[in-house]
Amino acid sequence: MVKICCIGAGYVGGPTMAVIALNCPSIEVVVVDISVTRISAWNSDQLPIYEPGLNEVVKQCKGRNLFFSTDIEKHVSEADIIFVSVNTPTKTRGLGAGKAADLTYWESAARMIADVSKSNKIVVEKSTVPVKTAEAIERILTHNSKGIKYQILSNPEFLAEGTAIQDLFKPDRVLIGGRETPDGLKAIQALKDVYAHWVPEDRIITTNLWSAELSKLAANAFLAQRISSVNAMSALCEATGADVSQVSHAVGKDSRIGPKFLNASVGFGGSCFQKDILNLVYICECNGLAEVANYWKQVIKVNDYQKNRFVNRVVSSMFNTVSGKKIGIMGFAFKKDTGDTRETPAIDVCKGLLGDKARLSIYDPQVTADQIQRDLTMNKFDWDHPIHLQPMSPTGVKQVSIAWDAYEASKDAHALCILTEWDEFKTLDYRRIFDNMQKPAFVFDGRNVVNVEMLRDIGFIVYSIGKPLDPWLKNMPAVA
Question: Is 272 an active-site residue?
């Protein structure tokens, strides 16, 4: 029986291994992690992450050929294929701080693999890593090999949170990069055989190691670039009276461009986009490609600009101050159908409003009160370190309360800010909400989910990103 072990039981490792186990009943899959609480959660009925469809997949194969364990060394030693899905946070100090990936966790995983291995292994990079990481890992393993042979493969994930299970069952492509040597090609084939249980062969792409590593960074950079492009257009639409939805619809009808990732919003978030672009910038700078680095930096600058622009709209619309005013925050996760808050635009928007002394009442159907308070008190990039290495959350932000539903969050509020596109925000009883708010009542729609005309008919003053401005907002500055 082929044995697979995955180091890291997070957003990538857990779902990926569950889908492999379900589709490959003849393979034993063990997910290991140093976090006892995380592994306990995987072994309980309350999984540590929310992802539609994940529960059902885990239930079908847990205890049969899918296992979760903290006995890392035992399972690594027994495995034929080891997936490494550990954190690769952005460095916060030292060379490359603020841009380069910190490979501390990857290196310690590689050293541990070398220490405990008694048979040949295929080691698969599943975390997003900088180009040439495989070479560094290879060196660690070969210099500590004790006669054991290792093959390093790059198998980047291309999952979108909220649809990760669907993406795993029906991927656009599975990418496997390896050495173009006889042993390297054999290792590529072994991993290909695993995916071939359910993925059509023409969707399994093989490349050299560096192409696979760079393809992941490039894909995320291209997607983020599209969002920043449409968000840059949204500012121009507001200035000219154009409607960004109509513009992006017309642009997306061009078959060379296509309609995906052209929705204007308060900005992109998630664990990958910003981190991967910063990584790309650093690699370009290290290779003397300053102009290329500056090009990709601009994608992040536009994203930051969009969040600042949104906060400035809120403050300037409300008589240039939100001090002491209650603002209902609708949604905190970086996108709908996930509880993930990593790099969510909501953090920067909330911090901007708190900086002007607003009182916030935050509601999100999937994010815990503790997580929200943590995110609002944590330094940038600290979120990407394992929880036990993160700074302890202070007592929380006094001006922030967490609401149980949208109606509680909006009661007596001066304004609502919609920051996540949860479906329920489209169907709320906005008449009831209006009646319970302070007047004038504002809605700032950072995701373009509400029916603007209907809300204006009720009596709201509405700001919707990239849409023709409410007469109330026409002569107010969008930028501080």
Answer: yes
